[in-house]
Amino acid sequence: MMRLPGFRYRAPRTVADAAAWLAENPADTMLLAGGTDLLPNMKRRQQTPGTLIGLRAIRELTEISSGDGLDGLDGLTIGAAVTLSTLVSHPDIRQNYPGLYQAAAQVATPHLRNMGTIGGNLCLDTRCTYYDQTYQWRKAIDFCMKKDGDTCWVATSSPRCLAVSSTDTAPILQALGASVTLQSTRGARVVALADLYANDGMHYLTRQPDEILTKVTLPAMDGAGWRSAYWKLRRRGSFDFPVAAAAVAAQFDGPEIVDVRVVLGAVASRPVASDQAAAVLRGNRLTDDLIAEASAVGADVARPMDNTDFELVWRKSMVRTLIASALCEIRGDDMRARRRQIARQELLLTSRSA
Ligand SMILES: Cc1cc2nc3c(=O)[nH]c(=O)nc-3n(C[C@H](O)[C@H](O)[C@H](O)COP(=O)(O)OP(=O)(O)OC[C@H]3O[C@@H](n4cnc5c(N)ncnc54)[C@H](O)[C@@H]3O)c2cc1C
Ligand code: SF4
What we know:
Layout: E1 8-10, H1 15-24, E2 29-32, H2 38-43, E3 51-54, E4 64-66, E5 76-79, H3 84-88, H4 91-96, H5 98-105, H6 110-115, H7 118-122, H8 135-140, H9 169-175, E6 179-184, E7 187-192, E8 212-217, E9 226-233, E10 244-253, E11 256-265, E12 272-273, H10 275-281, H11 288-299, H12 312-331, H13 336-353
Parallel strand pairs: 1-3, 2-3
Antiparallel strand pairs: 4-5, 5-8, 6-7, 6-8, 9-10, 10-11, 11-12
Helix pairs in contact: 10-11, 11-12
The protein binds flavin-adenine dinucleotide (FAD) and iron/sulfur cluster.
Protein backbone atom coordinates (compact mmCIF):
# COMPACT_ATOMS: atom_id res chain seq x y z
CA MET A 1 0.00 0.00 0.00
CA MET A 2 1.32 3.45 -0.88
CA ARG A 3 1.35 5.88 2.03
CA LEU A 4 1.21 9.65 2.06
CA PRO A 5 4.44 11.39 3.07
CA GLY A 6 4.28 13.59 6.17
CA PHE A 7 2.96 17.14 5.72
CA ARG A 8 1.52 20.02 7.73
CA TYR A 9 -2.18 20.74 7.12
CA ARG A 10 -3.78 24.18 7.46
CA ALA A 11 -7.49 24.92 6.95
CA PRO A 12 -8.26 28.63 6.45
CA ARG A 13 -11.83 29.96 6.49
CA THR A 14 -11.17 32.99 4.28
CA VAL A 15 -9.35 33.57 1.00
CA ALA A 16 -7.31 36.30 2.73
CA ASP A 17 -5.95 33.81 5.30
CA ALA A 18 -5.28 31.22 2.61
CA ALA A 19 -3.36 33.79 0.54
CA ALA A 20 -1.37 34.98 3.56
CA TRP A 21 -0.43 31.42 4.58
CA LEU A 22 0.47 30.50 1.01
CA ALA A 23 2.69 33.59 0.76
CA GLU A 24 4.73 32.41 3.77
CA ASN A 25 6.45 29.68 1.73
CA PRO A 26 4.91 29.21 -1.74
CA ALA A 27 7.72 26.92 -2.96
CA ASP A 28 6.95 24.27 -0.33
CA THR A 29 3.15 24.72 -0.04
CA MET A 30 0.34 23.38 -2.20
CA LEU A 31 -3.40 24.02 -2.24
CA LEU A 32 -5.64 21.06 -1.54
CA ALA A 33 -9.19 21.13 -2.91
CA GLY A 34 -10.81 17.69 -3.39
CA GLY A 35 -7.41 15.99 -3.30
CA THR A 36 -8.37 13.48 -6.01
CA ASP A 37 -5.31 14.39 -8.08
CA LEU A 38 -2.90 15.78 -5.51
CA LEU A 39 -3.12 13.04 -2.86
CA PRO A 40 -2.44 10.12 -5.27
CA ASN A 41 0.44 12.19 -6.69
CA MET A 42 1.85 12.67 -3.20
CA LYS A 43 1.59 8.94 -2.54
CA ARG A 44 3.67 8.36 -5.67
CA ARG A 45 6.08 11.13 -4.54
CA GLN A 46 5.45 13.08 -7.75
CA GLN A 47 4.57 16.08 -5.60
CA THR A 48 5.99 16.45 -2.09
CA PRO A 49 4.84 19.71 -0.47
CA GLY A 50 5.73 20.29 3.18
CA THR A 51 2.43 22.13 3.78
CA LEU A 52 -1.07 21.70 2.39
CA ILE A 53 -3.64 24.46 2.58
CA GLY A 54 -7.18 23.04 2.42
CA LEU A 55 -9.72 25.15 0.54
CA ARG A 56 -12.94 23.31 1.29
CA ALA A 57 -13.84 25.33 4.41
CA ILE A 58 -13.77 28.66 2.55
CA ARG A 59 -17.44 29.26 1.92
CA GLU A 60 -17.04 31.94 -0.78
CA LEU A 61 -15.17 29.41 -2.92
CA THR A 62 -18.08 26.97 -2.88
CA GLU A 63 -20.74 29.23 -4.37
CA ILE A 64 -22.19 29.62 -7.86
CA SER A 65 -23.76 33.00 -8.65
CA SER A 66 -25.15 34.87 -11.64
CA GLY A 67 -24.39 38.33 -12.99
CA ASP A 68 -20.93 39.03 -11.57
CA GLY A 69 -20.31 41.80 -14.11
CA LEU A 70 -16.59 40.97 -13.98
CA ASP A 71 -14.74 42.47 -16.93
CA GLY A 72 -17.94 42.59 -18.94
CA LEU A 73 -18.63 38.91 -18.32
CA ASP A 74 -22.07 38.85 -16.74
CA GLY A 75 -22.94 35.19 -16.95
CA LEU A 76 -22.14 32.68 -14.24
CA THR A 77 -19.43 32.84 -11.58
CA ILE A 78 -18.30 29.49 -10.21
CA GLY A 79 -16.26 29.33 -7.01
CA ALA A 80 -13.06 27.31 -7.41
CA ALA A 81 -14.04 24.83 -4.68
CA VAL A 82 -17.43 24.01 -6.24
CA THR A 83 -17.46 20.26 -6.74
CA LEU A 84 -18.02 18.80 -10.18
CA SER A 85 -21.16 17.05 -8.86
CA THR A 86 -22.59 20.40 -7.76
CA LEU A 87 -21.65 21.90 -11.10
CA VAL A 88 -23.44 19.25 -13.17
CA SER A 89 -26.56 19.46 -11.04
CA HIS A 90 -26.81 23.26 -11.48
CA PRO A 91 -29.73 24.01 -13.85
CA ASP A 92 -27.99 26.96 -15.60
CA ILE A 93 -25.02 24.80 -16.55
CA ARG A 94 -27.08 22.15 -18.31
CA GLN A 95 -29.35 24.74 -19.91
CA ASN A 96 -26.90 27.41 -21.07
CA TYR A 97 -23.49 25.70 -21.14
CA PRO A 98 -24.24 22.12 -22.28
CA GLY A 99 -20.64 21.51 -23.38
CA LEU A 100 -19.42 22.30 -19.86
CA TYR A 101 -22.09 19.99 -18.45
CA GLN A 102 -20.89 17.19 -20.75
CA ALA A 103 -17.22 17.73 -19.86
CA ALA A 104 -17.76 17.89 -16.08
CA ALA A 105 -20.15 14.92 -16.12
CA GLN A 106 -17.49 12.81 -17.86
CA VAL A 107 -14.70 13.51 -15.36
CA ALA A 108 -13.71 10.33 -13.52
CA THR A 109 -16.48 8.64 -11.46
CA PRO A 110 -19.42 9.93 -9.37
CA HIS A 111 -17.38 9.46 -6.17
CA LEU A 112 -14.46 11.43 -7.56
CA ARG A 113 -16.80 14.14 -8.87
CA ASN A 114 -18.29 14.44 -5.37
CA MET A 115 -14.82 15.37 -4.09
CA GLY A 116 -13.14 16.88 -7.17
CA THR A 117 -13.56 20.62 -7.73
CA ILE A 118 -13.56 22.87 -10.77
CA GLY A 119 -10.44 24.71 -9.51
CA GLY A 120 -8.59 21.44 -9.00
CA ASN A 121 -9.66 20.25 -12.45
CA LEU A 122 -8.31 23.40 -14.10
CA CYS A 123 -5.01 23.12 -12.21
CA LEU A 124 -4.73 19.34 -12.70
CA ASP A 125 -1.18 18.07 -13.11
CA THR A 126 -0.16 17.09 -16.64
CA ARG A 127 0.11 13.36 -17.30
CA CYS A 128 2.61 10.99 -18.95
CA THR A 129 3.22 7.23 -19.10
CA TYR A 130 6.71 7.73 -17.66
CA TYR A 131 5.53 9.96 -14.82
CA ASP A 132 2.23 8.55 -13.54
CA GLN A 133 3.97 5.63 -11.88
CA THR A 134 5.09 4.65 -8.40
CA TYR A 135 8.30 6.06 -6.98
CA GLN A 136 10.03 2.67 -7.44
CA TRP A 137 8.95 2.42 -11.10
CA ARG A 138 10.23 5.92 -11.82
CA LYS A 139 13.46 5.22 -9.94
CA ALA A 140 14.02 2.10 -12.04
CA ILE A 141 14.13 4.23 -15.22
CA ASP A 142 16.31 6.85 -13.48
CA PHE A 143 13.31 9.19 -13.16
CA CYS A 144 12.58 11.87 -15.80
CA MET A 145 12.86 15.61 -16.23
CA LYS A 146 9.45 16.37 -14.70
CA LYS A 147 10.45 14.97 -11.31
CA ASP A 148 13.84 13.92 -9.90
CA GLY A 149 15.55 13.27 -13.29
CA ASP A 150 17.16 15.05 -16.25
CA THR A 151 15.92 13.28 -19.38
CA CYS A 152 12.59 13.25 -21.14
CA TRP A 153 11.97 9.61 -22.03
CA VAL A 154 9.30 10.52 -24.59
CA ALA A 155 11.75 12.56 -26.68
CA THR A 156 15.26 12.33 -25.28
CA SER A 157 16.43 15.44 -27.15
CA SER A 158 13.49 17.53 -25.98
CA PRO A 159 14.49 20.53 -23.85
CA ARG A 160 11.04 20.56 -22.26
CA CYS A 161 8.62 18.12 -20.74
CA LEU A 162 5.83 16.98 -23.10
CA ALA A 163 3.37 15.68 -20.48
CA VAL A 164 -0.26 15.93 -21.55
CA SER A 165 -2.91 18.39 -20.38
CA SER A 166 -5.64 16.00 -19.19
CA THR A 167 -8.29 18.28 -17.75
CA ASP A 168 -11.75 17.80 -19.22
CA THR A 169 -13.20 21.18 -18.30
CA ALA A 170 -10.38 23.48 -19.51
CA PRO A 171 -10.91 22.99 -23.29
CA ILE A 172 -14.65 23.68 -23.12
CA LEU A 173 -14.26 26.59 -20.69
CA GLN A 174 -11.71 28.08 -23.09
CA ALA A 175 -14.14 27.56 -25.98
CA LEU A 176 -16.89 29.25 -23.94
CA GLY A 177 -14.67 32.30 -23.37
CA ALA A 178 -14.27 31.86 -19.59
CA SER A 179 -11.94 33.88 -17.36
CA VAL A 180 -10.40 32.98 -14.02
CA THR A 181 -9.52 35.14 -11.02
CA LEU A 182 -6.15 34.61 -9.35
CA GLN A 183 -5.78 36.01 -5.83
CA SER A 184 -2.66 36.58 -3.74
CA THR A 185 -1.56 38.95 -0.99
CA ARG A 186 -0.61 41.31 -3.84
CA GLY A 187 -4.24 41.54 -5.01
CA ALA A 188 -6.47 39.87 -7.59
CA ARG A 189 -6.01 39.57 -11.33
CA VAL A 190 -8.40 38.28 -13.95
CA VAL A 191 -7.00 36.28 -16.88
CA ALA A 192 -8.67 34.69 -19.87
CA LEU A 193 -8.62 30.95 -19.32
CA ALA A 194 -6.54 30.51 -22.48
CA ASP A 195 -3.82 32.59 -20.79
CA LEU A 196 -3.77 30.38 -17.69
CA TYR A 197 -1.91 27.68 -19.63
CA ALA A 198 1.56 27.27 -21.15
CA ASN A 199 2.66 24.48 -23.50
CA ASP A 200 5.16 23.03 -21.04
CA GLY A 201 4.47 19.80 -19.15
CA MET A 202 6.29 21.02 -16.05
CA HIS A 203 5.28 24.68 -15.97
CA TYR A 204 1.84 24.22 -17.48
CA LEU A 205 0.19 27.05 -15.52
CA THR A 206 0.99 30.77 -15.67
CA ARG A 207 -0.42 31.01 -12.14
CA GLN A 208 2.28 32.26 -9.75
CA PRO A 209 3.13 29.93 -6.81
CA ASP A 210 1.53 32.35 -4.32
CA GLU A 211 -1.74 32.71 -6.26
CA ILE A 212 -5.05 30.97 -5.56
CA LEU A 213 -7.53 30.40 -8.34
CA THR A 214 -10.67 31.72 -6.66
CA LYS A 215 -13.33 31.69 -9.37
CA VAL A 216 -14.24 30.96 -12.96
CA THR A 217 -16.45 33.48 -14.77
CA LEU A 218 -18.49 32.65 -17.86
CA PRO A 219 -20.08 35.13 -20.26
CA ALA A 220 -23.89 35.18 -20.39
CA MET A 221 -25.02 32.85 -23.18
CA ASP A 222 -28.72 32.36 -22.65
CA GLY A 223 -30.87 33.67 -25.49
CA ALA A 224 -27.80 34.70 -27.52
CA GLY A 225 -27.82 31.74 -29.91
CA TRP A 226 -24.84 29.93 -28.36
CA ARG A 227 -24.53 26.14 -28.50
CA SER A 228 -21.67 24.02 -27.20
CA ALA A 229 -20.50 20.41 -27.08
CA TYR A 230 -17.59 18.35 -25.70
CA TRP A 231 -16.38 14.97 -26.98
CA LYS A 232 -13.60 12.91 -25.42
CA LEU A 233 -11.72 9.71 -26.13
CA ARG A 234 -10.83 7.51 -23.16
CA ARG A 235 -10.14 3.88 -22.43
CA ARG A 236 -12.94 3.05 -20.01
CA GLY A 237 -16.18 4.85 -20.80
CA SER A 238 -17.17 5.02 -17.15
CA PHE A 239 -14.05 6.71 -15.72
CA ASP A 240 -10.90 7.73 -17.47
CA PHE A 241 -8.82 10.77 -18.31
CA PRO A 242 -9.21 12.10 -21.85
CA VAL A 243 -6.49 11.04 -24.30
CA ALA A 244 -7.96 13.29 -27.00
CA ALA A 245 -10.88 15.71 -26.81
CA ALA A 246 -12.70 18.37 -28.81
CA ALA A 247 -14.67 21.30 -27.40
CA VAL A 248 -16.79 23.54 -29.60
CA ALA A 249 -18.83 26.65 -28.75
CA ALA A 250 -20.63 28.47 -31.55
CA GLN A 251 -23.06 31.36 -31.77
CA PHE A 252 -25.77 31.02 -34.41
CA ASP A 253 -27.82 33.68 -36.16
CA GLY A 254 -30.49 31.48 -37.68
CA PRO A 255 -28.64 28.67 -39.44
CA GLU A 256 -25.44 30.71 -39.83
CA ILE A 257 -22.46 30.60 -37.45
CA VAL A 258 -21.46 34.13 -36.46
CA ASP A 259 -18.88 33.33 -33.78
CA VAL A 260 -17.12 30.07 -32.91
CA ARG A 261 -14.21 28.57 -30.97
CA VAL A 262 -12.78 25.08 -31.40
CA VAL A 263 -10.40 23.87 -28.67
CA LEU A 264 -8.65 20.50 -28.46
CA GLY A 265 -7.79 18.72 -25.22
CA ALA A 266 -5.15 16.10 -24.35
CA VAL A 267 -3.05 16.63 -27.48
CA ALA A 268 -0.38 18.91 -25.95
CA SER A 269 0.67 20.24 -22.54
CA ARG A 270 -2.14 22.79 -22.74
CA PRO A 271 -5.56 23.05 -24.44
CA VAL A 272 -5.00 23.98 -28.10
CA ALA A 273 -7.33 26.35 -29.97
CA SER A 274 -7.76 25.87 -33.70
CA ASP A 275 -8.25 29.36 -35.13
CA GLN A 276 -8.09 27.81 -38.59
CA ALA A 277 -11.12 25.61 -37.94
CA ALA A 278 -12.97 28.63 -36.52
CA ALA A 279 -12.13 30.62 -39.67
CA VAL A 280 -13.56 27.86 -41.87
CA LEU A 281 -16.78 27.77 -39.84
CA ARG A 282 -17.42 31.48 -39.26
CA GLY A 283 -20.10 33.00 -41.50
CA ASN A 284 -21.24 29.62 -42.82
CA ARG A 285 -23.95 26.99 -42.36
CA LEU A 286 -23.04 23.64 -40.84
CA THR A 287 -23.37 21.42 -43.89
CA ASP A 288 -21.78 17.95 -44.01
CA ASP A 289 -19.05 19.30 -46.32
CA LEU A 290 -18.26 22.20 -44.01
CA ILE A 291 -18.06 19.88 -41.00
CA ALA A 292 -15.67 17.58 -42.89
CA GLU A 293 -13.46 20.52 -43.92
CA ALA A 294 -13.43 22.16 -40.47
CA SER A 295 -12.65 18.92 -38.64
CA ALA A 296 -9.78 18.10 -41.02
CA VAL A 297 -8.32 21.60 -40.61
CA GLY A 298 -8.93 21.51 -36.83
CA ALA A 299 -7.21 18.15 -36.39
CA ASP A 300 -4.14 19.51 -38.17
CA VAL A 301 -3.02 21.45 -35.09
CA ALA A 302 -3.01 18.29 -32.92
CA ARG A 303 0.54 17.04 -32.35
CA PRO A 304 0.06 14.36 -29.68
CA MET A 305 3.09 12.41 -28.44
CA ASP A 306 3.28 8.72 -27.63
CA ASN A 307 3.05 9.20 -23.86
CA THR A 308 -0.48 8.33 -22.94
CA ASP A 309 -3.10 5.68 -23.55
CA PHE A 310 -3.92 4.09 -26.96
CA GLU A 311 -1.84 3.76 -30.08
CA LEU A 312 -0.61 7.18 -31.21
CA VAL A 313 -1.71 7.08 -34.85
CA TRP A 314 -5.24 5.96 -34.00
CA ARG A 315 -5.49 8.49 -31.19
CA LYS A 316 -4.43 11.28 -33.55
CA SER A 317 -6.84 10.12 -36.24
CA MET A 318 -9.68 10.21 -33.72
CA VAL A 319 -9.23 13.97 -33.16
CA ARG A 320 -10.93 14.61 -36.50
CA THR A 321 -13.84 12.35 -35.53
CA LEU A 322 -14.22 14.12 -32.18
CA ILE A 323 -14.35 17.58 -33.78
CA ALA A 324 -16.84 16.38 -36.40
CA SER A 325 -18.98 14.79 -33.68
CA ALA A 326 -19.05 18.00 -31.62
CA LEU A 327 -20.02 20.01 -34.71
CA CYS A 328 -22.77 17.54 -35.67
CA GLU A 329 -24.07 17.74 -32.11
CA ILE A 330 -24.35 21.54 -32.08
CA ARG A 331 -26.10 21.27 -35.47
CA GLY A 332 -28.75 19.26 -33.65
CA ASP A 333 -28.00 15.76 -34.97
CA ASP A 334 -28.96 12.79 -32.82
CA MET A 335 -25.52 11.61 -31.69
CA ARG A 336 -26.44 8.58 -29.58
CA ALA A 337 -25.35 6.07 -32.24
CA ARG A 338 -21.97 7.85 -32.75
CA ARG A 339 -21.32 7.87 -28.99
CA ARG A 340 -22.05 4.13 -28.83
CA GLN A 341 -19.79 3.51 -31.84
CA ILE A 342 -16.81 5.34 -30.25
CA ALA A 343 -17.40 3.55 -26.93
CA ARG A 344 -17.37 0.20 -28.80
CA GLN A 345 -14.04 1.07 -30.48
CA GLU A 346 -12.53 2.02 -27.09
CA LEU A 347 -13.77 -1.24 -25.61
CA LEU A 348 -12.42 -3.29 -28.52
CA LEU A 349 -8.95 -1.75 -28.21
CA THR A 350 -9.05 -2.23 -24.45
CA SER A 351 -9.84 -5.94 -24.71
CA ARG A 352 -7.17 -6.40 -27.43
CA SER A 353 -4.47 -4.87 -25.23
CA ALA A 354 -5.56 -6.72 -22.07
C1 LIG B 1 -9.24 7.28 -11.22
C2 LIG B 1 -9.23 8.75 -11.59
C3 LIG B 1 -9.83 9.14 -12.77
C4 LIG B 1 -9.83 10.49 -13.13
N1 LIG B 1 -10.40 10.86 -14.30
C5 LIG B 1 -10.39 12.15 -14.69
C6 LIG B 1 -11.01 12.54 -15.91
O1 LIG B 1 -11.62 11.73 -16.61
N2 LIG B 1 -10.93 13.83 -16.28
C7 LIG B 1 -10.30 14.77 -15.50
O2 LIG B 1 -10.27 15.95 -15.90
N3 LIG B 1 -9.72 14.45 -14.32
C8 LIG B 1 -9.77 13.16 -13.89
N4 LIG B 1 -9.22 12.81 -12.69
C9 LIG B 1 -8.48 13.81 -11.90
C10 LIG B 1 -9.28 14.54 -10.80
O3 LIG B 1 -10.15 13.65 -10.12
C11 LIG B 1 -10.11 15.70 -11.34
O4 LIG B 1 -9.38 16.44 -12.27
C12 LIG B 1 -10.57 16.63 -10.21
O5 LIG B 1 -11.43 17.62 -10.74
C13 LIG B 1 -9.42 17.35 -9.52
O6 LIG B 1 -9.97 18.25 -8.58
P1 LIG B 1 -9.56 18.23 -7.05
O7 LIG B 1 -10.37 19.27 -6.38
O8 LIG B 1 -9.64 16.87 -6.48
O9 LIG B 1 -8.04 18.68 -7.18
P2 LIG B 1 -6.85 18.50 -6.14
O10 LIG B 1 -6.32 17.11 -6.23
O11 LIG B 1 -7.22 19.00 -4.80
O12 LIG B 1 -5.81 19.51 -6.79
C14 LIG B 1 -5.28 19.30 -8.08
C15 LIG B 1 -4.22 20.38 -8.35
O13 LIG B 1 -4.81 21.66 -8.41
C16 LIG B 1 -4.27 22.53 -7.42
N5 LIG B 1 -5.39 23.35 -6.95
C17 LIG B 1 -6.58 22.89 -6.47
N6 LIG B 1 -7.40 23.92 -6.24
C18 LIG B 1 -6.72 25.04 -6.56
C19 LIG B 1 -7.05 26.43 -6.54
N7 LIG B 1 -8.25 26.87 -6.15
N8 LIG B 1 -6.11 27.33 -6.93
C20 LIG B 1 -4.90 26.89 -7.37
N9 LIG B 1 -4.53 25.60 -7.41
C21 LIG B 1 -5.44 24.69 -7.01
C22 LIG B 1 -3.68 21.62 -6.37
O14 LIG B 1 -2.62 22.25 -5.64
C23 LIG B 1 -3.17 20.49 -7.25
O15 LIG B 1 -1.96 20.84 -7.86
C24 LIG B 1 -9.21 11.46 -12.29
C25 LIG B 1 -8.63 11.05 -11.07
C26 LIG B 1 -8.64 9.72 -10.73
C27 LIG B 1 -8.01 9.33 -9.43
S1 SF4 C 1 7.08 14.08 -21.21
FE1 SF4 C 1 9.17 13.50 -20.70
S2 SF4 C 1 9.81 14.82 -18.97
FE2 SF4 C 1 7.58 14.95 -19.20
S3 SF4 C 1 6.78 13.45 -17.76
FE3 SF4 C 1 6.97 12.40 -19.73
S4 SF4 C 1 9.02 11.49 -19.76
FE4 SF4 C 1 8.94 12.96 -18.09
